[in-house]
Amino acid sequence: MGRIRVLPFGFFLSALAFLFSLQACRQAEKAGEVWIPEILTFAGDTVPISDPDIKERLERELLINRYWHASTAQWIMRSGRWFPLFDSLLQKNGVPADFKYLVAIESGFDNVVSNKGATGFWQLMEPTAREFGLQIDSEIDERLDPEKSTLAACKLLLRGRKEFGKWPETAVSYNIGVNGLRSVMEAQYTDSFYDLLINQESGRYFFRILAAKLILENPERYGFENLKPAKAYTWKEAEISDSIPDLAWWCRKNGFTYKCFRLLNPWIRTSAVHLPNGRNSLKVKMPLDCKQFTGMKIPPIPALDSAALKNRHTEENLVGKKDMAGFGAAVSGKSTGTSEQLKFHEIARGESLSAISNRYSTSLSVIFRLNPELKGRADKVHEGMKIRIKED
User: Which of 148, 185, 213, 227 is 20–30 Å from 357 (CA)?
Assistant: First the structure.
């Protein structure tokens, strides 16, 4: 009878290691297979993916976004909520629909704020947003309004298109700026982005947009299956003609929650609504399908010690006497500050001198004259600083 040969334990370990290594190689090989169509276009322009460098740069972004599975999955789901709005606004303003994919890489369809201060879906900086007519102050930031910020982004994109005449270059200019892209092109004697050696962030930017387009248009090809796009919010437009000192109370009184209202109106930054100087009303979106889980009854009038009222919302400069009428006889018709106090304004977080001048229907020149220490130091204003806003 033959003898059974016992193999050393180390042999089995080596064999297992080999099998695991082989499986890992096969998975890596499979992971490296990314689908790219033979013809790829962006905003009607054909992308030269036959060039090895161009193709490799696109493959990199596709692999990265497939690796970041959770984040990319959220793109796919959120896109269903916002693409109908973007498609409509982009078309009306002469911007190709492919630019909606820019929002995916800029903000992930979320109202985020970057460490440089870029804000909202389209990541607009404050000077650019103001240039295109958006209101930004301590209570309102229209960069957070998906509709108004899209209109501002369209204006910025059309400026790039006018400068470069081509949409791929327009897309890159959204990241590096018109002047930045023009200077790099001039230095390298070319008018095509595809020829440029450029900083890594801007060099990847356009390919990140292309990757977002391919994945969001063909999620199953990149391993994203059975993901249901989020439903669009349902709402009706309304106008607010009076300031609202306690927005949470007002929302409950109108049959929906503060949360539902703020989801539709993220540009309102505080728990109150005050009409800006020179405006008789504000347009807001009113929720139509807001589920409430509370059984708590709301009082007939807001509580005098509510969080909204404690948070500086009863200051005379923010709430007029007519806005206090609903709070009962105890506060109706009473002023909240002395005449001396009303000559000064305490600057709130994020509040600019321009916003303050608009609020008091005055001009920056008057504010500088009343506060000579601010001349040449307008960028040094800070929260808590008190400035004079009226003559003695």
Answer: 148
- Rounded CA separation 238/253 (Å): 15
In a domain, 319, yes or no: no
Query: Are residues 282 and 273 in contact, defined by beta-carbon separation less than 8 angstroms?
Result: yes
> What is the distance, to the nearest Å, from the Cα of residue 66 to the centroid of all Cα atoms in its chain?
23
Q: How far apart are the first and last CA of the chain?
A: 117
**What CATH number corresponds to the domain at position 194?**
1.10.530.10
177 and 60 in a common domain:
yes
Q: Do 209 and 280 sit in the same domain of this protein?
A: no
> Which pLDDT tens digit goes with each residue over 88-116?
999 999 999 999 999 999 999 999 999 89
Contacts of 88 (CB under 8 A, 6+ apart): none
- And the tokens for 235? 């709402």
pLDDT band at 22 (very low <50, low <70, confident <90, very high): very low
Number of Cβ within 10 Å of residue 219's Cβ equals: 19
Question: Cβ distance 312 to 318 under 8 Å?
Answer: yes
**Cα 364 → chain centroid:** 29
